[in-house]
Design a protein that fits this description.
By secondary structure, this protein is of the alpha+beta class. The chain has one domain. The chain contains two helices and two strands; from the N terminus they run ββαα. It has a two-stranded antiparallel sheet with strand order 1-2. The chain is globular, with a radius of gyration of 12 Å. It holds the Pfam family DUF2256. This is DUF2256 domain-containing protein.
Length: about 50
């Protein structure tokens, strides 16, 4: 197994952790904002 340092990353606004591109997001990376479904559900806590 080898590391993939060339993958783009973003920072999740809910947990403030960086997360890397995943193949399941290859067609919608620009719309991806949260690192996980859990953070997406908790976004209303941060929006206040």
């Amino acid at each position: 197994m080898h590391k993939k340092p060339h993958l783009p990353t973003k920072t999740c606004p809910v947990c403030n952790r960086p997360f890397a591109w995943r193949k399941k997001w290859q067609n919608c990376w620009d719309e991806v904002v949260y690192c996980s479904e859990r953070c997406r559900r908790n976004k209303k806590v941060v929006d206040n």
